[in-house]
Specification:
single chain; 542 residues; 2 domains; seven-stranded mixed β-sheet; four-stranded antiparallel β-sheet; elongated; membrane; Polyamine aminopropyltransferase
Length: 542
């Protein structure tokens, strides 16, 4: 007779260790709200650091798409690393969180100044950008696990509800930080002061949460240590704010030279004007790029304007050109009836109209009754312009290697520009240096052809500065590292003739022979088979 053998009973699972409950000076519900409020503030500060890195990197290095991709991808990776590293701090979550916030506030708050200093005195900021993205990402990633531990010590809500509350506060804080940066911090405080004050708020809120709400869980030694660290960080950031203006002036002198006369952050860009007549060339910088140089702007603007004026030119449209220098060349033709300048930044026009040195350089073009200015984005303005309104369209815009300018070098843009041309009208485009960036230059030419226009590429040499820069800069005082040529494309609905206009004042520097030689010379650099650039598929690289 057999008997079934019953398996031995499984040993009972060990009970979960009791959750450590903080001894709070307030009710648990109030404590929970305070933790969530801290999550909100920390998320807002974290996103400000992130946007600050993206904005400053785009300004200092160029190509905002690439810089945003580098910063965001590195930071997201680093946040994952920080979350893993925070597991070691969960046993002392309050102390760990306070220290993480203090270090994050110091690094994030000073990041803009260090990046700017690296660019001003060492000529580059790429490595510093990656280092700050990693460091800030690791510290931001460590916040959430520590806050999760702290909020679970405040109340006994289930883990799912706790996670939902934390992420809700985190996302709302990120929204507020993301909106505060472009609409409040950047225009009112600037990049450097905005980052420093954000760091001070970050350190103060993180330290206050731990030192007040969780003070009964801290030893006396820990309390004094955290208080000293938090006060030290806030003090360093506050003192640095006092010296920000002196730092900016010193950095500007390092970047632009000693003769900075105007330095203004407008709602569009940073505008810096250097030099005075008789003491050196007048230079105009827009967002750190040399846009006008008195050393060689005459050669550039003659080559840009006069070939397009070889034909009917009663009505002329200048896209960009708020400095008035292209208009100066156009207005030498007495049979020009009207000139319209469409400029995005009204401050540039005001500066070109009122600054003695710059207005002298542009021949006081804005005093001419034939000239009118329009403030607006060239792309959107063209969409509302009447068909067949202009005989000549002059595109005097930053190089397409700057991401913000890419849409102004697209097939759609040239289609709009072609629409406002009269029969027989011509458009001329500044397309960057063909020798230095041939793919960019020939992509502009291919894009004009894709818009249904016939093209005549040409270039002029003799460039001595980094003037009219896209990604190219002028790192040496004599311009030795700058590109040596400018590239242009003349286009029309019928094959255009490349010649000089018949103005009463012929170009001083550009001759018809040099123009024809430049057209023949640039063909030897031709890159074939390039697709056009469109709004949804931009092809330009810096």
């Amino acid at each position: 007779m057999s008997r079934d053998v019953m398996p031995p009973p499984e040993p009972p699972e060990p009970p979960e260790p009791p959750r450590r409950v903080a001894r709070l000076p307030v009710r648990a519900r109030t404590g929970r709200l305070l933790v969530l409020a801290t999550v909100f503030v920390c998320a807002a500060c974290g996103l400000v650091y992130e946007l600050e890195l993206v904005a400053l990197a785009s300004y200092l290095i160029g190509d905002s798409v690439t810089q945003a991709s580098v910063v965001l991808s590195v930071m997201v990776f680093a946040m994952g690393v920080g979350s893993l590293l925070a597991k070691r701090l969960r046993c002392r979550a309050a102390v760990g969180f306070c220290l993480v916030e203090a270090v994050l506030a110091l690094i994030g708050g000073c990041s803009a100044m260090v990046l700017y200093a690296s660019f001003a005195w060492f000529g580059g900021a790429r490595y510093a950008l990656v280092a700050f993205s990693l460091a800030i990402g690791v510290l931001i990633g460590a916040e959430m696990p520590l806050l999760m531990t702290l909020i679970q010590r405040v109340s006994r809500q289930d883990a799912g509800g706790t996670v939902a509350d934390l992420f809700a506060a985190d996302y709302v804080g990120a929204l507020v930080g993301g909106l505060a940066f472009p609409f409040l911090l950047l225009p009112r405080l600037g990049q450097l002061t905005g980052a420093l004050l954000t760091g001070a708020v970050n350190a103060a809120v993180g330290g206050a949460l731990v030192l007040w709400l969780f003070r009964r869980d801290l030893s006396v030694r820990s309390r004094w240590l955290l208080l000293a660290v938090s006060l030290a960080v806030v003090s360093v950031l506050a003192v640095t704010v006092v010296f920000v203006d002196d730092f900016e002036r010193a950095a500007r002198r390092a970047v632009y030279g000693a003769q900075v006369r105007v330095a203004v952050q407008t709602g569009v860009q940073e505008v810096v004007l250097t030099g005075t007549p008789g003491r050196g060339p007048v230079d105009l910088y827009l967002d750190g790029r040399l846009r006008v140089s008195g050393r060689d702007e005459q050669r550039y603007h003659e080559a840009l304007v006069h070939p397009a004026m070889a034909g009917r030119h009663a009505r002329v449209l200048i896209l960009g050109g708020g400095d008035g220098l292209a208009a100066r060349e156009v207005l030498t033709y007495p049979d020009v009836l009207s000139v319209t300048v469409v400029e995005l930044d009204p401050f540039v026009v005001r500066l070109a109209r009122t600054d003695p040195a710059l207005s002298a350089l542009n021949g006081h073009a804005f005093r001419d009754h034939r000239l009118r200015t329009v403030t607006g984005d060239a792309f959107h303005w063209l969409r509302g312009a009447a068909r067949g309104s202009y005989d000549v369209v002059i595109s005097d815009l930053p190089d397409p290697g700057i991401t913000a300018s890419t849409k102004l070098y697209s097939e759609e843009f040239y289609g709009l520009a072609s629409r406002v041309l009269t029969d027989g009208g011509r458009i001329v485009v500044h397309a960057g240096p063909p020798a230095g960036r041939p793919r960019t230059y020939w992509t502009v030419e291919a894009t004009l052809r894709a818009a249904g226009l016939y093209t005549r590429p040409y270039r002029v040499t003799g460039r001595v500065s980094g003037f009219t820069g896209g990604p190219d800069r002028d790192p040496s005082p004599d311009g030795s590292a700058a590109p040596r040529d400018w590239g242009f494309v003349l286009a029309a609905r019928t094959p255009p003739r490349l010649d000089l206009g018949a103005g009463t004042r012929r170009p001083r520097l550009l001759t018809a022979a040099a123009l024809r030689a430049g057209a023949a010379d640039v063909e030897r650099l031709r890159v074939t088979g390039l697709p056009p650039s469109t709004l949804v598929h931009p092809r330009y690289t810096g």
